[in-house]
């Protein structure tokens, strides 16, 4: 079955420290993966997608097919990165979502 | 452009009633998808509509239905409401059927009592 797992409900790091938000997926075929972010009192918005291979707001994510992972990373966390982060997989007209990780950046 | 707009923003209904939620996509977007998000979970796919036809359906009972209008706006209808239908309902629009960059509305918070 197609599934997205985000093992951490909450991640708290200090400002300036590296951040890694974990995402694992289960999918047969070539996956199309996304990271969405939801800042406080704002709507869900696309952060990045693996096919674009961009760095957005200092975040990057690399698809590792061997480990079926798509972890989100940032070398130096900033306070404005505090938000809810969702990993999602596109399959058959729909996005399949992980449960999300709440990232808190401590000053 | 106002982005994806949903109405109402909040709604309280009684068990057994029905509800209609509305969504206006971004201008030029022809695809609308609906998701249900229960507290503490990621969104769950309900429907996708493209060019006024249902293109995908998630694992929801027949009490859930939707439609898309000629102007690409959409309605989600839920009949015989249950307490478990209480959730945030999200609408997302995208440019085409296969274009997977989805733009989300603020959602409608439905509470069933």
Brief description of this entry?
Chain A has 107 residues and is mainly β. Chain A is 0% helix and 47% strand.
Outline of chain A: globular
Could you give the order of the helices and strands of chain B? EEEEEEEEEEE
> What is the succession of H and E elements of chain A?
EEEEEEEEEEE
Count of discrete alpha- or pi-helical segments spanning 4 or more residues of chain B: 0
Radius of gyration of chain B: 13 Å
Report the sheet-strand fraction of chain B. Answer: over 45%
Number of strands of chain A: 11
Task: Show the helix and strand layout.
The complex is a heterodimer of chains A (107) and B (113).
Chain A: E1 3-5, E2 10-14, E3 19-21, E4 24-26, E5 32-38, E6 45-49, E7 60-61, E8 72-74, E9 83-91, E10 94-97, E11 101-106
Parallel strand pairs in A: 2-11
Antiparallel strand pairs in A: 1-4, 3-8, 5-6, 5-9, 7-8, 9-10, 9-11
Chain B: E1 5-7, E2 10-13, E3 19-24, E4 31-37, E5 44-50, E6 53-57, E7 64-68, E8 74-78, E9 87-94, E10 103-104, E11 108-112
Parallel strand pairs in B: 2-11
Antiparallel strand pairs in B: 1-3, 3-8, 4-5, 4-9, 5-6, 7-8, 9-10, 9-11
């Amino acid at each position: 079955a197609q599934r997205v797992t985000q093992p951490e409900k909450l991640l708290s790091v200090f400002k300036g420290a590296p951040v890694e938000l974990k995402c694992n997926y289960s999918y047969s075929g070539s996956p199309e993966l996304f990271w969405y972010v939801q800042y406080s009192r704002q709507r869900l918005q696309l952060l990045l997608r693996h096919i674009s291979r961009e760095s957005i707001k200092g975040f990057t994510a690399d698809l590792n097919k061997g480990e079926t992972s798509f972890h989100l990373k940032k070398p130096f966390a900033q306070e404005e990165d505090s938000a809810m982060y969702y990993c999602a997989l596109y399959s058959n007209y729909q996005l399949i979502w992980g449960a999300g990780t709440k990232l808190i950046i401590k000053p | 452009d106002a982005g994806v707009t949903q109405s109402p923003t909040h709604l309280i209904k009684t068990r057994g009633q029905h509800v209609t939620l509305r969504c206006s996509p971004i201008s030029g977007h022809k695809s609308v998808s609906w998701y249900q998000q229960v507290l503490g979970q990621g969104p769950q796919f309900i429907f996708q509509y493209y060019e006024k036809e249902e293109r995908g359906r998630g694992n929801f009972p027949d009490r859930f239905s939707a439609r898309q209008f000629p102007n690409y706006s959409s309605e989600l209808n839920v009949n015989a409401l249950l307490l478990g239908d209480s959730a945030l309902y999200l609408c997302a629009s995208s440019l085409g059927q296969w274009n997977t960059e989805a733009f989300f509305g603020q959602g409608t918070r439905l509470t069933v009592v």
